[in-house]
Design brief:
Length: about 500
């Protein structure tokens, strides 16, 4: 699941183009050595990998450093090579070394051949000095439950998650932020000998791209931001926006499932299917539902729905999943499907690894309210209209107990050219956030995919209208004359 620079601290010393401190020159001028990736998928695709050294703290560039892992698919049309295209798959906390393979698949061969496609594990993730707080559960984004006692448990757990990160990672964790990742991107650009970089970012990657464009506007070439976050809403407000969007998606899915009651046996009307889901949440709160070796409680049952409501093409998959959970709730022995088993291992135990790196970025980027009562009031207010997802979207997180961010959030206000792509029924980054980013980046254009429930469009949905707009921009550098509306 997958997120600033009128307030830039001196758009000089801290942006990587310092006139006051030449210590960054050694990072910009470093030699990049490409080797095999020691990864079967990347090596088979013909990719190369390298490490780029960056400061841990850009305000002290002569101090500790990190190694940032990058990958490359070289441009094959050298006569018309445009330059490099950096990319980010979202998260925050998504590893990006493989993502340029996905990017290549979303572009026409003609366009992809003109760029060195660069994947990158952001700092704190994957091969780039990963954060590991040793959490007993997978992540900090889950439901507060149904009662005040459940919420008090959530407060204790979130406080403990923050404490573990401070103990395990010390002051290093404060530097795992979007602004520093943007600075890392610019070091990568300079180390590769490029004057500018193009970029493709999904979800949180749109926020990272917007921050980079604000901090380094002269270095931004052709930027495509797919399923965008409103920088002014990042991140807590964006998460709250997910509540109503997922409730609407749940109703849509319930109607679809009700029309197939002979197969899924969850109810013959949308209201009956929704009631069944809500009853499962209540049952999980009273006594966790055993499914295989797992005990699924009210904290994470909504999250098993949330992960599949991102795309209407997953409706059958979600119906089968809910049928499995309902069977388990009725006392039948159930072995979870492989994908549900994998999800539950992440949610419940943090296997194979937790998402504390994601928390580091979210909590290190922007301060949030610290009073637990503020969250509880929001949870309670949400229940009438958001009975399944309100307690998730409004829950307290470890950020309420995190050290204060070292920098203020970036205010995005610029005229950098960018193409923003957004579906109207996106459940992760709602459509109005793309509209807001369009207003903040006055040189941009917005491509709206109408009446589609999808998060992350390019390469996932074969839509000629969207693909033509994106590929034309990456090929020719010309944005549409006006905002576009595309239909499935």
């Amino acid at each position: 699941m997958k997120w600033i620079a009128a307030l830039v601290l001196g758009a000089g010393a801290l942006t990587g183009v310092s006139h006051a401190d030449d210590a960054l020159d050694r990072f910009h001028r470093q030699e990049v050595t490409w080797t095999a990736c020691a990864d079967a998928t990347l090596d088979q695709a013909g990719a190369q990998c390298a490490q780029v050294e960056v400061p841990l703290d850009y305000s002290a560039p002569r101090g500790r450093t990190l190694k940032i892992a990058i990958s490359r698919l070289k441009a094959t049309d050298t006569a018309r090579r445009r330059g490099i295209m950096l990319s980010n798959p979202g998260g925050p906390g998504g590893a990006g070394l493989h993502f340029m393979l996905y990017v290549r698949g979303g572009l026409t061969p003609e366009v992809a051949s003109r760029y060195d496609l660069i994947g990158m594990d952001p700092r704190g993730v994957g091969r780039s000095a990963p954060i590991d707080c040793g959490w007993p559960i997978g992540h900090m984004l889950w439901s507060a439950g149904l009662t005040k006692a459940d919420f008090r448990d959530a407060v204790r757990t979130q406080r403990d998650l923050a404490r573990r990160c401070e103990q395990e990672e010390g002051d290093r964790i404060a530097h795992i932020t979007t602004r520093n990742t943007a600075r890392d991107m610019d070091v990568v650009r300079a180390a590769l000998g490029e004057a500018k970089t193009s970029y493709l970012g999904f979800s949180y990657g749109t926020y990272l791209g917007a921050v980079y464009a604000q901090m380094f506007p002269r270095r931004a070439d052709r930027f495509v931001l797919d399923s965008a976050i409103d920088p002014a809403a990042y991140m807590a407000t964006s998460i709250r926006n997910q509540g109503p969007a997922n409730e609407a998606a749940l109703d849509e899915w319930a109607a679809w499932t009700a029309a197939r009651d002979d197969e899924y046996r969850l109810g013959s009307t949308g209201a009956q299917v929704r009631a069944r889901v809500e009853s499962l949440v209540r049952q999980a709160a009273e006594s966790p539902i055993r499914i295989g070796t797992h005990l699924l409680d009210e904290r994470f049952l909504p999250m098993t729905l949330f992960t599949l409501l991102t795309d209407s093409r997953y409706d059958a998959h979600l119906a089968a999943r809910v049928r499995q959970i309902a069977d388990a709730a009725e006392g039948r022995p159930v072995q979870p499907s492989p994908d549900l088993d994998q999800e539950l291992r992440l949610h419940l135990y943090g296997e194979p690894s937790d998402l504390s790196g994601q928390a580091a970025v979210i909590c290190g980027d922007a301060a949030v309210p610290r009073n637990p009562d503020w969250y509880w009031r929001n949870v309670q207010r949400s229940r009438a209209t958001q009975p399944v997802f309100g307690a998730y979207a409004n829950n307290i997180t470890a950020c309420a107990f995190w050290p204060a961010p070292l920098e203020p959030p970036t205010v995005v206000r610029n005229d950098v050219a960018a193409l923003i792509v957004q579906a109207t029924r996106d459940t992760r980054t709602v459509h109005r956030e793309g509209v807001a980013l369009r207003r903040a980046m006055t040189g941009s254009r917005l491509v709206t995919l109408q009446d589609v429930r999808m998060h992350g469009i390019l390469g996932r949905l074969r839509n000629a209208c969207v693909e033509d707009a994106v590929n034309a921009y990456f090929r020719d550098g010309v944005l549409p004359a006006a905002d576009l509306t595309c239909r499935a």
